[in-house]
Specification:
Elements: H1 9-25, E1 30-34, H2 42-50, H3 64-67, E2 79-86, H4 95-99, E3 105-106, H5 115-134, E4 139-142, H6 150-156, E5 161-162, E6 168-169, E7 177-184, H7 204-207, E8 214-216, E9 219-220, H8 226-232, H9 239-242, E10 248-250, H10 254-257, H11 284-288, H12 292-298, H13 309-322, H14 327-336, H15 342-359
């Protein structure tokens, strides 16, 4: 039952304003409120699945009753509070690091602490702050942790628009931010949705994707996407894509880096998003020589742990094949042959062949 103090529209409007202010206090860049209507996305999503553009992510084909009907995720849901948080540290290089081929490039969201833990904690704190002021409001917090169309929810909340690179864009901050949601039973006033997608005729993200992963605007073939290949994909990386991966060993930021809206990016002030273990400037060889114990220790509480040690070495072997040819690189690859798994060994052999080709 709605608390009596919130029986009037004016009180609900005041509460919505307070929630947005509290969100800033908890480190979020913005909060918007929406009553999502997600059924309109079902047809396009199912067509994407039918074309196997989700690659090996079979879980995306599950729980359509939850994905398009948020009230099934949290009974009684009347509104979703959509929030975003900046994650790019000011000190971290992006384009220049990609050009330094003996250095590893890790997607900038993954350099520090796992964002799931940080943002979920802040969402819960915000939800409890609301509860402290209005009583039990029936809520549930999500951070990329359930079948939710996060970007579509945020777009409907007026936070920005979904760009041709399938990321949420806003003139306030480009796309260098992460999303989270609070499902609530409170009938809060909603914000105006984004009415226009401001990509215009720009196709930089489509034409400059290293692996040509975009089939068309707003359609990504995940099976070609470097983020998918280096994080989610199990087994050998398709040989025709290896040379295109460059020094990217976990994730890829290219479709953000080439987007004109990136110039409006805001830097994070969160200490937890600062790079750990010099991951923003580490040499490929140094990371390749981590044993499994070191990998597990250095990726504790990090999103990088998701890929696993074997795939970590697989990814770096490919990057070393794309690195400048020198005795140290070749020697490192040769020394790792006998002690590596069959999967990693396959990619080491490929990497050595690349250096032989360069020497011809």
């Amino acid at each position: 039952m709605l608390p009596s103090s919130l029986a009037s529209p004016d009180n609900l409007s005041k509460l919505a304003d307070e929630i947005k202010s509290w969100a800033l206090d908890f480190g979020f860049a913005e909060a918007r409120i929406v009553e999502p209507d997600l059924e309109q996305y079902r047809s396009d999503f199912n067509q994407w699945l039918d074309k196997n553009y989700h690659a090996g992510m079979d879980y995306l084909a599950n729980h359509s009753d939850l994905r398009f009907q948020p009230e099934n995720l949290h009974p009684g849901t009347r509104r979703v509070i959509s929030l975003r948080m900046h994650y790019l540290p000011q000190s971290v290089e992006t384009v220049e690091r990609l050009k330094t081929k003996h250095k590893a490039y890790i997607a900038r969201y993954a350099l520090g602490r796992d964002y799931h833990k940080l943002i979920r904690k802040r969402l819960t704190q915000l939800a409890k702050k609301i509860e402290l002021n209005v009583g039990d409001h029936g809520y549930r917090a999500f951070v990329d942790s359930a079948p939710i169309l996060e970007r579509q929810v945020a777009e409907q909340a007026g936070m920005g628009w979904i760009g041709k690179n399938t990321l949420l864009l806003t003139p306030k901050a480009g796309s260098w931010f992460l999303l989270g949601e609070i499902f609530t039973n409170l009938p809060l006033p909603v914000d105006e949705p984004t009415s226009t997608r401001h990509c215009g005729s720009c196709d930089a993200c489509l034409t400059q994707c290293p692996t040509d992963a975009f089939v068309e605007p707003w359609v990504l073939d995940a099976g070609k996407c470097i983020s998918y290949l280096t994080i989610e994909h199990k087994g050998p990386i398709p040989e025709e894509l290896r040379s295109k991966m460059g020094n990217r060993i976990f994730g890829c930021d290219d479709c953000q880096l080439v987007c004109p809206w990136t110039k409006f990016a805001k830097h994070t002030q969160e200490e937890d998003f600062q790079p750990r273990h010099n991951l923003d400037s580490a040499d490929l060889i140094d990371l390749f020589e981590w044993d499994e114990e070191t990998f597990l220790k250095n990726t504790e509480g990090s999103p990088i742990r998701r890929t696993g040690y074997e795939n970590w070495r697989r990814n770096i072997a490919v990057a070393l094949g794309n690195a400048p040819t020198n005795k140290l690189t070749i020697g490192t690859l040769k020394n790792a042959l006998n002690s590596s798994s069959e999967l990693v060994k396959e990619h080491i052999v490929w990497a050595l062949q690349q250096h032989q080709t360069k020497n011809i």
